[in-house]
Amino acid sequence: MTKAREQNHQGGCCGSLTNYLTSAKFLLYLGHSLSTWGDRMWHFAVSVFLVELYGNSLLLTAVYGLVVAGSVLVLGAIIGDWVDKNSRLKVAQTALVVQNVSVILCGIILMMVFLHKNELLTMYHGWVLTSCYILIITIANIANLASTATAITIQRDWIVVVAGGDRSKLADMNATVRRIDQLTNILAPMAVGQIMTFGSAVIGCGFISGWNFMSMCVEYFLLWKVYQKTPALAVKALPKIEGAELKQLNLHKETEPKSLEGTHLMGAKDPNIHELEDEQEPSCASQMAEPFRTFRDGWVSYYNQPVFLAGMGLAFLYMTVLGFDCITTGYAYTQGLSGSILSILMGTSAITGIMGTMAFTWLRRKCGLVRTGLISGFAQLSCLILCVISVFMPGSPLDLSVSPFEDIHSRLIQAEPLSTIRPTDIPEIIFTPEMHMSNVSDPATIVPEMSPKSVPIVSVSLLFAGVIAARIGLWSFDLTVTQLLQENVIESERGVINGVQNSMNYLLDLLHFIMVILAPNPEAFGLLVLISVSFVAMGHIMYFRFAQKTLGSKMFACCPEEKEVTNENQTNISVV
Length: 576
Hints:
Layout (H helix, E strand, L loop, with lengths): L1 H20 L2 H30 L5 H27 L2 H28 L1 H6 L4 H37 L3 H32 L2 H29 L10 H15 L29 H20 L4 H9 L9 H9 L4 H29 L1 H23 L14 H7 L14 H4 L4 E2 L10 E2 L9 H31 L5 H25 L6 H27 L25
Antiparallel strand pairs: 1-2
């Protein structure tokens, strides 16, 4: 009897594990993991490749960042509208193929440029090489736009349908997706970085192209399996305007003679009625104006959403230099931090980000979704106070009397740029992480493991302590706004609203790039920190106003999620 019970228990556990591993939820996680891993490897590598191609200058990287931000800003609503108007499987598979094929093609072009850079540099006075730069940035931008479409359809739509209207399950799935993001953010760059360190840029390009090809095939299959296991994904709500027109036609049909019944619906035609056969075709001008109308209507609809202020609050958090991007990393190098220390700090930031996802799920259960955003915002701002203090501490290079373009002028008078040197000739300098890069382009000044600067590290230590600690509140707040958008935006507008939200995020990110371009020197970084904290504070003030309008006098009364209603029309999450 005991053995039989143990066998039944083991069989039940194995069966439960098998059911989970074949469930739509797990397959969605697996596909997202593969997609995010490839994205993170590519985003890390393309920045490094562009720096190497232009002689250790950040010019191409900055141009790429501006093009990406500007494209999503302009096309975000149009991409979202395309997501809304097409079937879920078609959108997901099309975006997946376009994204991966673009990365593969870009990787092949980069390989050719790295192998024949000297020859390309001498052809037509360097215009061929410049054309290659433009082509690489253009294709990489197409890959990013396709990635945006994938994120909208999977993370903002599919995940809601798979959750089946269960808000707690949706919150757990959102948190799991963010944990996957955090882990891949640190592990994927480390993996491709090792390949580039011990191999070369050409090997790195080839590896990324091969990975994306294999990943594309697996992800395509996983999307199909998730679609098959979730029948609700096959049913999509009509757009609001089409639904309203259909209701009017149904109402009109009831008052018509019986001979006209059915002639207005589903394109059915009565052979005896000829005046309904000739429908007016849209003019060429109307078709050309359609994207502009979509852009306008998307932004108007976004403004009219009940969660508009919450979305704006999240967007304002993108106007910051207080993150682990190339700008903050470059500043850290100027302050004497080595690559090994930065890698440890990045790993720590990933851990605090995962802690933020855990804090989100706990706070949502205890205090409700809207109040979770308030608590998260307060936690983030409290930690960023350390960054403000760091600006005025010993070791801070803050000096607004220094011209921000002095270093750029010194670059322009250099006689021989580093771009004439093949990256494969100096792999120990280009790819070794334990190195400190100076602000000039002379390769002799770029040496591994330079001796630390004779300046106190109090300032930079406080800066990174604040940035790392603030990520707990940041990711909890991000998840809060994400779920508010999922729950409060009707199904037929999820694509366009989240497309506009991405546009807002990139708009503030674009301003952040412009801000850095106007003040690129380390002496002005303290001013950028103060501006960044100000924008984060404004974002949380907007969210506070949203919470005040939503909860009223009960804003500070902690209550479980089940008792909280985010707006007067709130119902269970719409799946069909």
